Amino acid sequence: MDLVEFLAFVAGCRNLEHLWKAYQEKMAEYGFDRVLYGYTRHKVANSLGDPDDFLILSNHGQAYMEGFIRSGLYFHAPMVRWALENEGACSWSHIQALSDTGALDERALQVIEFNRKMAMTAGYTISFFSFSPRFKGAVSLAAADMTQDQVDALWLAHGSDIELINNIVHLKILTLPYVQPNRSLTNRQREALQWVGDGKTTQDIATIMDLTTATIEKHLRLAREALAVDTSAQAVLKAAMSNQIYQMES
Fold first, then answer.
1. pTM higher than 0.85 for the full model?
2. Helix (H, G, I), strand (E, B), or coil: what is residue 138?
3. What is the pLDDT of residues 218-248, one digit of tens each?
4. Which of 28, 34, 91, 127 has the lowest tally of Cβ within 10 angstroms?
């Protein structure tokens, strides 16, 4: 697909899996064979929130994801730190510039060494605009078969198109349902939360769903547990943020 065809596909896509597959293929056309997209709605001053609440999409292998994400290395990565403080696109030559000035601490150097062992040495990072300080999204584009100088030359020629593609895909992802494995809701839990969001009482919901109040309370309790929150109002908000409720049927 050319650029216009691809963007038309993105605009009409209703499935995150199909979108992600097409996006990977499009980035590979430019030489970026490994991509790592991350988004959180729970960022605070010294944390990106619970990793279980992140939306992470990647075609990296398990070893990289275990080492970079699950071990917590990501939080000290120079390009992640850049993305938290900036918007737009940045060459990974930024890392060398920081190193040359002695601006990297021991934890950042550990990340660089880990990435070097994983052949993650050439690429670009795009940090997306966020209208709230609690929200942040970014994508790492790595090119295994290019040097950083080659990637920078590629970006000079095609960077505006690549950045446009990534911004449009990011905005599309935010509209699509996604469910973390340990944050999923059953259909009954989802329906009960929707009625809570509409201002209905437990008795109202029991009548609407033709269930007992005890059963409704159980669905709401399990929904709170699945979403790791304390109140049903918080559960409604968190489920809505991940597009798990108030969604049109496919």
1. no
2. strand
3. 999 998 888 888 899 888 887 877 777 766 4
4. 28
